[in-house]
Design goal:
globular, Spore Coat Polysaccharide Biosynthesis Protein SpsA, Chain A, 7-stranded mixed beta sheet
């Protein structure tokens, strides 16, 4: 069963202009994601969907197939699945339906830090379980939903986000039940799910995940996605000793908690 990576590298960005090609750890940000994909044993092809000429040049230098993203899919209201579906459709036109990939790995070009082997882990789960999609998650840590609250902007009155008791009456982080949030490191889907061919799935922005959704859990702080200028600083520090392409120093920095300043994952548009 073949699997391809589709790296999304939209040129525009409001938070960090040009983030996909911004220098991180001495290299363009997209280069790290290209390296992650090249190191994966499960992938048969790497595709970069972009409207950025510089990102396209870097992709070609790394042996990736470049798909020119149309303007209609390159604005900040376009969706991740629309961009990935466009790329897969063009791949199918080239290979024919019989030879088209069965599994699609969606990677964001603005994620320079990922755990080693994550792509193979996600594809392995997709294949072994027969599920429709696998997404990566991290523990929410102290930003737990039980500790969220409503604060009135005028009076300053604080009330629980849900339930009757503030913080669910839990005041030690160790006593919170496990909760996880998507970290943006990977989305692996079947071609059927991406093309919205799985029966029984309700229409909506997450329909491309299909019906049987699974998750892989990454350590807290092990993924950095570039959404704010401070993310560039954190990622650069973590990757400073990994400019030769090795990942051991990066993971040791994660283990030591160097990414604690990282903000939690946000809602995503195609990168």
């Amino acid at each position: 069963m073949s699997a391809v990576a589709i790296i999304l590298a939209r040129a525009g960005s409001k938070g960090v202009p040009g983030k996909n090609i911004a220098p991180v750890g001495g290299r363009p940000c997209i280069q790290w994601t290209l390296d992650h994909a090249r190191q994966a044993r499960s992938l048969t092809e790497i595709i970069v969907s972009t409207d950025c000429p510089h990102a396209a040049t870097i992709a070609r230098q790394n042996g990736a197939t470049v798909i020119d993203r149309p303007e209609s899919l390159a604005h900040d209201r376009a969706t991740v699945d629309d961009a990935a579906r466009h790329a897969l459709t063009l791949v199918r036109d080239r290979t024919g339906a019989a030879n088209s990939p069965e599994h699609i790995v969606i990677l964001y070009a603005n994620v320079p830090v990922r755990p080693t082997g994550l792509i193979d882990r996600a594809i392995g789960m997709l294949r072994s379980t027969g599920c429709d999609s696998v997404q990566s998650y991290q523990p929410v840590g102290k930003h737990h939903p039980w500790w969220t609250a409503r604060v009135d902007g005028d009076s300053g009155t604080v009330s629980p986000w849900e339930g009757e008791v503030l913080n669910h009456n839990v005041f030690r982080r160790q006593d919170l039940p496990p909760a996880f949030i998507p970290d943006g490191a990977i989305i692996a889907v079947t071609a059927r799910a991406l093309m919205l061919e799985v029966p029984g799935v309700q229409p909506g922005p997450h329909a491309f995940f299909g019906k049987d959704r699974r998750g892989v859990i990454n350590p807290h702080g092990s993924v950095i996605d570039i959404d704010t200028p401070i993310d560039l600083i954190v990622a650069g520090a973590m990757l400073a000793d990994a400019s030769d392409g090795t990942v051991a120093s990066r993971e040791s920095r994660v283990a030591s908690g160097s990414a604690e300043v990282r903000t939690e994952a946000k809602s995503r548009t195609p990168n």
